[in-house]
Amino acid sequence: MSDRTLDRSVVPAPGVLRPARFPEIHRFDLSNGVPVWFCETDGMPVTTVRVLHPSGAIREDASRAGLATLTGNLLESGTTRLTALEIARTLESYGVRVGTSTSWEVGSVDVTSLTRNLEAVVGIMAELMTDSVFPETEVARLRHEQLAAIRQRRADPRHLADEIINRFIFAEGTPFVRPASGTPETVSAITRNDVVDFHQRTFTPTGAAVVVVGKLDPARARDLAEEAFGGWSGGPPPPASGVARAREPGVQVVVVDRPGSVQSEIRVGHLGVARNTPDFFPIAVMNTILGGAFSSRLNLNLREKHGFTYGVNSSFVMRRQPGPFTVATAVQTEVTGAAVREIVRELNHIREELVTDPELTDARNYLAGTYPLRLQTTDGVASRLSELFIYDLPHRYVDEFPEQVLAVTRERVLSAAVEHLRPDDLTILAVGDASVVGSQLEELGLAPVEVISAEGIGRTAPERS
Amino acid sequence: MTRFPIERYELENGLRVVLSPDATHPLVAVNLWYNVGSRNEREGRTGFAHLFEHMMFQGSQNVPDTQHIAHIERAGGSMNGSTWLDRTNYFETLPSNRLELALWLESDRMGFLLPAMTREKLDNQRDVVKNERRWRVDNQPYGDWDERIQMMMYPSDHPYHHSVIGSMEDLDAADLEDVSQFFSTFYTPNNAVLTLCGDFERDEAMQLVAKYFGDIPRGPDPPPLPGKPEVPTRLEAPAREVVESKVALPRVYIAFRVPPYGTDLFQDAEVATRILGTGGSSRLYDAMVREGRLAQNVGGYAFPIVTGAAMLVFWITGSPGVPIEQAEEAFWKVLGELAENGCEPEELEREITSQEAQRMISLQRVSERANEISMFTTLFDEPERVNTELDRLRSVTREGVTRFTWEYLTREHAGVLVYLPEGGTGEVEP
């Protein structure tokens, strides 16, 4: 069978590409005006239904940070008809779990079910959204759990770094400074009345949307959505609680002291861009080359060349408002300063010179080629449709994604780097052993090193200079 | 019920190949399982199977240094590898017109890895892996739980006594000679399974597999496992360890040895674990979290491992203000009730429906399907099990689950690992 003349030094050429096709999007309104996005898929007999509400953390009061998350978590704690245990048993008898998640922009209630059980499952999902009673005991229990979870995250250097970097990127008093799940102070202050009020004001059809993706025909999808969500009523949600803004310009170097740490969790970043930036595609390609893929500059440098780390990545978190741009990695304590120097070097380098042709081609092909991987599941397609709604993108976006990526030029990559990476405004954060890493960072000469105690963070907000 | 097509055959060199075509999406998953894991490591070389996995991404005779991954990324694919107790797997999903690229890359490192290996690459990946250990284990709350549990649950001469990540000393000791020996011993076509799942044409795929893998020579039969793989399927005497470390909340891990994955009893173990510890309707969640308010969270997992005895582990994270011993007592009470009164018919029904739904959902991805097929072929030489798993589950009875709980899930046979916050008593102020 074997081919004795096989020349293994030749890289096999691609065959004929069968382009991926985004399923046809059906868009209709329910009788109460709620917009529905629906796609019929081939494949397995499962369907995802997702309801997006204007109940994101951006609409909660800063003094009650964590309220949106708590309210979402409480949806399975009892309705006028069912107790929490009955809800869990009924859903699990259909083999499903209803997921509730709360981001800054929206709250979402989500289920993926065998299509044959869909009507029953979605009926319960609608009941959770509109008929939850928030028993006092369940509010107390889940508030207690949320406080304990915050304590646990702060004991974990990765999560601690993720939380603290935002305090130094965004201006005080603006929304993204605080973690969306709140702080011990704000969560402790939340009462059942706050939950009931927030639920009443934000689980409302005004500003909501329904996404249905699966193996079912459009007529059934329409009936399903109308039956479950068409009778839902409510007024407009409260406005967003603030506008994202960066702190004052300049470089900051901060160490969160965790004595005895064998690694430093490093975060380097600054204010990024909103999702509606006209530079979305150039930024995506630029970030892929910088730190968005395994073969990125940062990973080849810090991991494959220096062996400083198991991995490093860079990302722009894009929301309706600008989120953070961050480089994230964990390196052994001894090389913390050296790793930061390499990160800053890469940020400068990509702003100074055009990327090479192979870098450009590889990054474009990677982004365009992996896009269909995210369309294999009903859940994946539902996420793309949710983005259309949340960020107000045109339908053609889902089809045009690959060609838009492939059209980005080296010049556009350079201008995206120059405009959207700002080495002069970096916050450099290391969660690690200050007695060792403090002097390493000092020696870089970027800015005076500010040390805060990890212990202190558990109790109060750290001192800011 | 969806059935996946399965065609299994073997090349002359012993490579087992499974094809499962599905043209729903223009994607193809290529998945290789090598029948080698941390269980095959010799004394003084813990962590080596995993370090070796890293070396497999460092180029081969016709693929320069970092180009394995670069080739896949620029083709629009995603890839990775992973090492576990019993096996090591390598996998990529690509646009279906790049199947040949994946087969070229996988065959080059299966057949022609050693010419590309250098001391410099080994030193670099050793540093990377040591940082992986720091990240996953040493700098992470509860990060060493599996290492401690494995030590507790398996005797020192059992291949599961040590963790996959291994010790820093052993990682330091590994040299190029180890790389070459390990490769020649375990990375042979007759010790591997190759699965293709997705959008390809059967005859063409068979030709490509023969073209790239056909001339790789068969290797020697792999040696028997080191140490003593046979071990009683219950811990002989209860064990307990208490650790103080940088954790915010106390946590207890409670582990049991159970019959290996693939046996009927393991299936009972899996169902019992889920009835007890998975989801909002599970007994432990209801008694300890929702109603009892004794724990922040609970969970359980039956490790699908095959060497001598598998392992079942429950964990309970303490709730602030509640002594962890109180949560531990409540755990035993819940297990006692299941052993005494048996499981309910609805519990078993829910479990079967849940598995049906969860399998359908996760098997939407060609990569998941390919991995499961490789697993069933490597462990049981039974790729068709991807289609019959639910039937096997349906054969589990209430009596079986109850008897299993009674016989295996007892204090006399449990290994218990307790984490307490440094300087703490297990009680944290609320």
Question: What does it look like?
Answer:
The complex is a heterodimer of chains A (465) and B (430). With 465 residues, chain A is α+β, with helices and mostly antiparallel strands. Chain A has two domains: 25-229, 2-Layer Sandwich (Cytochrome Bc1 Complex, Chain A, domain 1), CATH 3.30.830.10; 252-459, Metalloenzyme, LuxS/M16 peptidase-like (Cytochrome Bc1 Complex, Chain A, domain 1, 2-Layer Sandwich). Helices cover 42% and strands 18% of the residues of chain A. Chain A is built from 17 helices and twelve strands. In chain A, a hairpin with a 3-residue loop joins strand 9 (309-318) and strand 10. The longest helix of chain A is centred in the first third of the chain and has 19 residues, at 136-154. The radius of gyration of chain A is 24 Å and the shape is globular. Chain B folds into two domains: 7-213, Cytochrome Bc1 Complex, Chain A, domain 1 (2-Layer Sandwich); 239-421, 2-Layer Sandwich (Cytochrome Bc1 Complex, Chain A, domain 1). In chain B, 42% of the residues lie in helices and 19% in strands. In chain B, strand 1 (7-10) and strand 2 (16-21) form a beta hairpin. The relative contact order of chain B is 0.16. The chains are: A alpha+beta (465), B alpha+beta (430).
How does the SSE layout of this entry go?
The complex is a heterodimer of chains A (465) and B (430).
Chain A: E1 25-29, E2 35-40, E3 46-53, H1 67-73, H2 84-93, E4 99-102, E5 107-114, H3 118-131, H4 136-154, H5 157-169, H6 184-188, H7 192-202, E6 209-214, H8 218-229, E7 252-257, E8 263-271, H9 280-292, H10 297-305, E9 309-318, E10 322-332, H11 336-352, H12 357-370, H13 378-390, H14 396-406, H15 410-420, E11 427-432, H16 434-443, E12 449-453, H17 454-459
Parallel strand pairs in A: 2-6, 7-11, 7-12
Antiparallel strand pairs in A: 1-2, 3-5, 3-6, 4-5, 8-10, 8-11, 9-10
Helix pairs in contact in A: 1-7, 3-8, 9-12, 9-15, 10-11, 11-15, 11-16, 12-14
Chain B: E1 7-10, E2 16-21, E3 27-34, H1 48-55, H2 67-74, E4 78-83, E5 88-95, H3 99-111, H4 119-138, H5 145-153, H6 168-173, H7 176-186, E6 192-198, H8 202-213, E7 239-245, E8 251-258, H9 264-277, H10 283-290, E9 295-303, E10 310-318, H11 324-341, H12 345-362, H13 366-380, H14 385-394, H15 398-408, E11 414-421
Parallel strand pairs in B: 2-6, 7-11
Antiparallel strand pairs in B: 1-2, 3-5, 3-6, 4-5, 8-10, 8-11, 9-10
Helix pairs in contact in B: 1-4, 1-7, 3-8, 9-15, 10-11, 11-15
